[in-house]
Each structure stands twice: as structure tokens, then as C-alpha cells.
Amino acid sequence: MKRLWLVFAQTVTISLAALFVLQTFYPEVVHRFSQSTPYAQPPSLQLKQAEQANVTTAASSYRDAANKAMPSVVNIFTSKKASSKPHPLMNDPLFRHFFGEQQEENQKPENSLGSGVIVDSQGLVLTNHHVIEAADQIEVALADGRSVPARVVGTDPETDLAVLRIEASDLPSITLAVDEKAAIGDVVLAIGNPFGVGQTVTQGIISALGRSHLGINTFENFIQTDAPINPGNSGGALIDTEGHLVGINSAIYSRSGGSMGIGFAIPVSLAKQVMEQIVRQGRVTRGWIGIEAQDISAELAESFKLNQHYGALIAGVLRNSPAERAGLRAGDILLEIEGRQVSDSSTMLNLIAGLQPEQKANVKISRNGRLMDVVISIGTRPAIQRVQR
């Protein structure tokens, strides 16, 4: 028995010594041997690791969302006649007789491009107003390769939205997301046709919500994203990781003309409201009371001896406007509209715009430090021309 134990001990000692020598002088042999003889894991552990691998792969890829939404995103090509002023000699009948036709031939149409989103299987396309502004011809290129003409159903320059219709059916329409679920940090994808290179998908996150005071549109409530958006993306889709439409890509902040990580999209809730009104009545109707307002700064709050820094200071009241008929004056501070707090002039504009014309609205104001309740009969906001950019 002792002899067997001695032989076993010597064998183990020699084996360990050999392993030590191999590990010291030939480590690649030990590494290759260890890889060729994996440890047999229990089936349950192997299944768990496989599930984790699948989850990791799914989290790192957004191909399902992209494949779901991409067929609904279209490229929009527009053209309009050149707006160059005629030469003064064109007023001479003799000159026009000899050179008029040649001058007209030399005027080439101006072309531009953008993107759009199919929101209805029967041919409704949502895009930006500035994409199709002043266009004489609009061509929509579908994801399946077809190219079809489009006509304008209606536009809303104050939110920079437009609705087109194409003569086609059974189109792949996008699914609208629930706007309230969007949150800062959510992953989003931007789909469009940047620089005309073709349909492109870029990825980022929602950087901020409710961006306003940017001077882009009259009514601003932008989603800010760092998903790269470039010229040609305007009117395209901003989608979530389920392929649902979160917003309509509209503008970028850039010093070079390219993406700098700050892009803005119109929220799907606002786009839906505008689209429904355009489809129903051909235009967007908004409430209006006829005042000019500005934000309450710290200096104004101190000057008016205010205890709060919210509200909108009425800087002017238009003649014969609903505000004048209700007795509002310059210097009044608008605090609430229909029970909803007015944070600033932008909030005031949006709240009033959301009211129906001829509706009786209760507003709370501060006049000379005294709170007052006023009833205003809401008017219809006059249509204004959007400044071309």
C-alpha cells in the first residue's frame, strides 16, 4: 500500500513539474490545449448564456424598427421656375422678338429635395412646409422604386407642416407613437434622404423635449435629438425602437451646413393635430385674442413688484381685437388660461391657439398687483405668410 502511494505521489509531482515547465517555457501549448478541451457546462447554464447572447444582439441592433418604418419613408423631389428678374431690354418689343424665346430657354428650373412619411395607406404623405414651398411640381419616390406625382392637400407654415396626396393605394403607412411615452434618453432613429444620396438611417437619443424660443416656427414644441440629421432629411421620420413615428425631422443647428449633433423634430402629437385639420377642412384654425406679449424676466418681475416669475406680460393690445373688447390692457400680466398656468409667452401662444374660435375662455390676469378674472370671446387667428428660409 505504501509502495502504491509512493508511486502516486511521484507521478503527481512529476506531472506538476512538467506542467510548470510547459507553462514557463511553452505557454502557447497550454493555452491551445485548454481551448481544445472546454469545460462541459450544464444544459441549463448553456441555455441561459444563449438567451443572454440573444438579448445582447437584439439590444445592439435596431434592424426590426428600421425595416418596419423604412418602407413608409419617401423621397420628395420638387422643382419650380427660376425667379430671375428679366433683363430691362426685354421690355423692348423688337429685342423680345429676336431674343425672348432664347432667354426663356436659358432659365432652368430650380430643384430641391426632402423627405416625407406615408401616414395613410390611401396616399397621404406628411412632410415639412419648407420642403414643398412654392414648388411647381412635386414628385414622390417610393421605397419600392416607383415615382409618382403628388398634389398639396394643405400646409401650415406656422408649424412648418404640409400634407400631400399621391394617387396610390395599399401603401405601407407608418404607425404613430404615443407622444406621452417619449422621454429624454430614449433611443431614436432618423430616416430620410440626406444630400440626395438615398434613404439613410441614423441613430441617437432624445436629448430634450419641449424646445421653444428657437425662432424657427411660430408654434414651437420641438424634440431635440443627436441623431444625425442633414439637408434632405427634412420631412423624414424620427422613430422609436419599435418603428413607431415619434416626430417629423424639421431643422438642425449647424455652423457648417452639416449635422453637429443638434437636430429638431416636430412631435407626432402636434403633427397629427395639424394633419387632421388640414385633411378635414384644408387649413388649420387656431384661437386668437390679439395681444403682443413678452416673457417675465427677473428685471420685469422686480419692476412690477411680482412675487412670481411666470406669466406673460401684455406689451400691446390690437384695436377691435377680442382682448380689447374684453378689457385687457398693456401692462396686464396673463397668469392662467382656462385654469392652465401660463409659464411664458410661448406657452400663452400655444394655449390660446388650442382654443376654439367663438369659445368663451376664462383668463386670470394681474393688474397693478391685483388678481382679476376676465372672460374673453376667442377669435380666429389670421393667416400669416411664413418667412421663406
How is this structure best described in words?
With about 400 residues, this protein is of the alpha+beta class. It has 3 domains: about 100 residues, Trypsin-like serine proteases (Thrombin, subunit H, Beta Barrel); about 100 residues, Trypsin-like serine proteases (Thrombin, subunit H, Beta Barrel), CATH 2.40.10.10; about 90 residues, PDZ domain (Pdz3 Domain, Roll), CATH 2.30.42.10. Helices cover about 30% and strands about 30% of the residues. It is built from 10 helices and 20 strands. The strands form 4 sheets. It has a 6-stranded antiparallel barrel with strand order 1-2-3-6-5-4. The chain has a 6-stranded antiparallel beta barrel with strand order 7-8-9-12-11-10. Strand 18 and strand 19 form a beta hairpin. It starts with a helix and ends in a 9-residue tail after the last strand. The mean pLDDT is about 80. This is Do family serine endopeptidase. Keywords: Hydrolase, Protease, Repeat, Serine protease, Signal.
Please outline what is shown here.
Helices cover 29% and strands 31% of the residues. With 389 residues, it is of the alpha+beta class. The protein folds into 3 domains: 68-166, Trypsin-like serine proteases (Thrombin, subunit H, Beta Barrel); 179-279, Beta Barrel (Thrombin, subunit H); 287-380, Pdz3 Domain.
